[in-house]
Amino acid sequence: MARYSFLLALLLLLFAAVSSAADDILIRQVVPDAVGEAAEKEEDHLLNAEHHFASFKAKFGKKYATKEEHDRRFGVFKSNLRRARLHAKLDPSAVHGVTKFSDLTPAEFRRQFLGFKPLRLPANAQKAPILPTKDLPKDFDWRDKGAVTNVKDQGACGSCWSFSTTGALEGAHYLATGELVSLSEQQLVDCDHVCDPEEYGACDSGCNGGLMNNAFEYILQSGGVQKEKDYPYTGRDGTCKFDKTKVAATVSNYSVVSLDEDQIAANLVKNGPLAVGINAVFMQTYIGGVSCPYICGKHLDHGVLIVGYGEGAYAPIRFKNKPYWIIKNSWGESWGENGYYKICRGRNVCGVDSMVSTVAAIYPSSH
């Protein structure tokens, strides 16, 4: 008898559970928004969004003028937590998470911190000669050789192209003179308005973007670029204050490097750091490791600097270490690996091989 009572109780419990589930299904069908909100709250709980947002505000000194702005930024932050989680799945050999850009929408991030314009190449841009690649070192890093200045910060200005330009010229100047000098991005922001004569509106335009090859052309035409300390960075568009008597470095010539990654490596080793365009879609959430996403667009929207290469994170799909480029960025040392980004080398990931330039420097006659 006791056994039958137990079975009856079990059946009643089962019926209650099924009824409850059925009611829940009906509720979900009738009130999908409420369920969506519940699911979102559950996801926020799993992401621990409030805790991460508090830590984010404290770490990066974030303050918002109104409660409405605070709540809006918290909503954006939660969306970026989900993006970071997605990026971690698509790019498992890198670490993705909260960065100083986590309260910005993708559109705001692109507008304020990118700024690369994939324009046509100026007439003076020659193709770099093919170099031998047989005896290239396995690992190479211009930072170890004294040819790279400290990581800089472009701020909320789409001037990445100017930092890529000065970085390449700083390295070339070091190779030509043995002297490492920090060069002025602000001069390029204020003074460089080189345009493509065949394409209306295709001009370097300060915080609204530009192209490294155009900037090399400007330096070639103007006679050089000043030191950072003589023409300091403001992160805003301004009037040109170029003083030709204070030129610190100038361009002898510049070339476009082949898409072949061995040629890119050979040019890097021989000619110094290289100015490159890249698709920065995974960079907003990047914290460290080797970024090698399964899918990444080839549309170039950010100018950076290749300073070296090596081998690193284990690639589970290929069962071996993956080679990578070492990239100097211009978002300060608080981003990425002390301001640097490692990206997979070997198959034009995120378009990193699509627009690569090398520059040669001459020692200014004034010296």
From TrEMBL:
InterPro entries attached to this UniProt entry: Papain-like_cys_pep_sf (IPR038765), Pept_asp_AS (IPR025661), Pept_cys_AS (IPR000169), Pept_his_AS (IPR025660), Peptidase_C1A (IPR013128), Peptidase_C1A_C (IPR000668), Peptidase_C1A_papain-like (IPR039417), Prot_inhib_I29 (IPR013201)
SUPFAM superfamilies: Cysteine proteinases
A GO molecular function held by the record: cysteine-type endopeptidase activity
GO CC term, one of those recorded: extracellular space
Highest taxon of the lineage: Eukaryota
PROSITE patterns attached to this UniProt entry: THIOL_PROTEASE_ASN, THIOL_PROTEASE_CYS, THIOL_PROTEASE_HIS
Domain (Cathepsin propeptide inhibitor): residue spans on this chain: 53-109
BP terms from Gene Ontology: proteolysis involved in protein catabolic process
Record CDD domains: Peptidase_C1A
Keywords, ordered alphabetically: Disulfide bond, Glycoprotein, Hydrolase, Protease, Signal, Thiol protease, Zymogen
Signal peptide: 1-21
Domain spans labelled Peptidase C1A papain C-terminal: 136-360
Protein family membership: Belongs to the peptidase C1 family.
PANTHER family: CYSTEINE PROTEASE FAMILY C1-RELATED
Protein name as annotated: Cysteine proteinase
Organism classification: Eukaryota, Viridiplantae, Streptophyta, Embryophyta, Tracheophyta
